[in-house]
Amino acid sequence: MSVGDVVGRFTTYVIDPALLILAALGFFYFIWGLVQFLLALNQGGHTDEGKQHMIWGVVGMVIMFSVVGIIALINNTFNFGVNVNSSGTGNYNPNTSVNVNPGVTFFQSGQ
Fold first, then answer.
1. Which of 6, 19, 48, 100 is the most exposed, having the fewest neighbouring CB atoms within 10 Å of its CB?
2. Which is nearest to 72 in space by CA: 62, 58, 82?
């Protein structure tokens, strides 16, 4: 088992579920704030607590989805090759087939 396999499995079985759970908690916190807001609005009370719960729920969800994007950006930028296939298992495929052709320029004369 290589280091890439360990990183792929760690990402698949630890990081991804943790991020999903935290995003779900942010969503439920938002829903709870919405319920509090609507109940307070219906009763003519203060809606500040519900508003705060909704704001922090949205902030939490944005942070969790940003973390997923940042992890993907780092993975693709530094070409770690950690991918998750359709069966949900992580695998390590380093990109060894980089095609660099220095003989071709961007601005070629077409004649």
1. 100
2. 82
What are the sequence ranges of the domains in the chain?
3-78
Beta carbons of 60 and 47 less than 8 angstroms apart: no
Tokens standing for residue 99: 């095609």
How far apart (Å, rounded) are the C-alpha atoms in residues 4 and 59?
Answer: 32
Flag whether the pTM goes above 0.70. Answer: no
Find tokens 């997923």 and name the residue. Answer: 68
Q: Which residues contact 105 (CB under 8 A, 6 or more apart)?
A: none
Q: Could you give the percent of the chain with pLDDT greater than 70? A: 68
